[in-house]
Amino acid sequence: MSVDVATHDTDTTFRQSDGLLAFLAAQGVSILFSSYQSGLLYTLRHTAEGEGAVHQFALGQPLDICVNDGTNASALFATELPQHSYRGPWRPPFIPALADEDRCQINGLAMEGGQPAYVSAIIRSDTIDGWLDREYHGGVVIDARSGKIVCEGLSKPHAPRLHKGELWVLNSGTGELGVVAGAASGRGTFEPRVFCPGFARELVIYNDFAFVGLSKPRSGTVEGVTLDQKLHDVESEAWCGIQIIDLAKGVCTEWFRIDGAVTEIFDVAVIRR
């Protein structure tokens, strides 16, 4: 594995499972990920020579649709560079009007048929920084089309994704990847499928595999959340990197781990070669 990573810490190390490169080659994909610490976007790929490479990468294309946690409702945007204008701001029914405040921390978006379908939020709140009051126990998933809350009582949920008729979501405060059973009925419940040893923030599902981005806690501890106890029970520590989960078997098949200056994975993408 060759590494070309710009960080301020030369002790940063990268490790991977023995079968990761063969897996990427078999799937015909590369992995993109970004981090807060370096401010860079990286690719993890299998080279033509049969080796692996991690290096910084830059994208010139804008996102078509995204969520913005700088407003109280985290409206959905469609960018139109270079003006960076937006259209169709969306808000859940418990937010009466948009404001330049972070209230409920909407952070994730699931698409269906090219349209927004579900969003995740840390809490159902309409007060400034209200999400900080119950950030570990008040998480919700909202149907973006009807505005109804389809699942509640989550712990810092992130990255809702639709796959083969199921709504997957990361329950980050418990370290669990699972599904919202009954989401289509409007009264869903979270069913955990896999435990991941870290704060799970990003999820990509490709060919029945879940690519989960994991981060270490910013404060050095996850005290006060279920994830802390789960890590203690399995005698493990939170780690930063990517786990590739076989959804049919419910197990991690391959992984990529980072130690050192980079401690948080912000976003993950899978691209076909």
Could you explain how this protein is built, in words?
This protein is mostly beta strands and 273 residues long. Helices cover 6% and strands 45% of the residues. It has helices spanning 20-27, 226-233; strands at residues 2-4, 13-16, 29-35, 41-46, 52-57, 65-67, 76-78, 106-112, 115-121, 139-143, 149-154, 157-163, 166-171, 176-181, 189-195, 199-206, 209-215, 240-246, 251-259, 265-272. The strands form five sheets. It has a five-stranded mixed sheet. Strands 2-19-18-17-16 form a five-stranded antiparallel sheet, with no helix packed on it. Strands 8-9-10-11 form a four-stranded antiparallel sheet, with no helix packed on it. Strand 6 (65-67) and strand 7 (76-78) form a beta hairpin. It is globular and about 45 Å long. The two termini are 18 Å apart. The model is unreliable at 1-9, 49-66 and 70-87 (pLDDT under 50).
Measured by DSSP, the beta-strand proportion falls in 35-45%
Which sheet architecture does the biggest sheet show? 5 strands, mixed
Q: In which order are the strands of the major sheet placed?
A: 1-5-4-3-20
What is Rg?
A: 18 Å
Order of H and E elements: EEHEEEEEEEEEEEEEEEHEEE
> What structural category arises from helix and sheet content?
mainly beta
- The residue-averaged pLDDT reads 77
End-to-end Cα distance, whole Å, is 18 Å
According to DSSP, the number of beta strands is 20
Report low-confidence residues grouped into runs of 5 or more: 1-9, 49-66, 70-87
Helix content: under 10%
Task: Determine the number of helices (DSSP H or I, runs of at least 4 residues).
Answer: 2
Overall morphology: globular
